[in-house]
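Saturday, quiet lab. Running sequence design on the structure tokens for the scaffold JK sent over.
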């Protein structure tokens, strides 16, 4: 990729990292943090979103990057589903959920 030497230079990876960090901090709050299974799932899937971007970039071909971006979208969707469960269980306010 022209002008990008490292996956950390990618704006999409930076956004995924920020999103994952925000989710991690939300899961530390009561009562969310007591639901260990959901905490692990939502943190793992949000981290997977950023990790797939990095892995795809590191593969060195445009085709593999596109493939891993698809995996990343899947991880984002999984994370959103976990956040829906957290909202339904009243671990998140409407504002946090949005």
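Result came back. Writing it out in full:
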């Amino acid at each position: 990729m022209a002008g990008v030497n490292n996956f950390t230079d990618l704006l999409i990876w930076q956004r995924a990292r920020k999103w994952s960090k925000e989710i991690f901090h939300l899961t530390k709050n009561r009562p969310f943090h007591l639901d260990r299974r959901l905490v692990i799932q939502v943190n793992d899937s949000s981290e997977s979103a950023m990790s797939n971007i990095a892995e795809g970039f590191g593969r060195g071909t445009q085709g593999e990057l596109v493939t891993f971006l698809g995996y990343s979208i899947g991880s984002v969707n999984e994370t959103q589903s976990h956040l829906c469960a957290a909202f339904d269980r009243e671990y998140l306010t409407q504002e946090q959920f949005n």
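Notes for JK: Residues 62-88 form the longest helix (27 residues). The radius of gyration is 15 Å. Ask whether to fix the surface positions before the next round.
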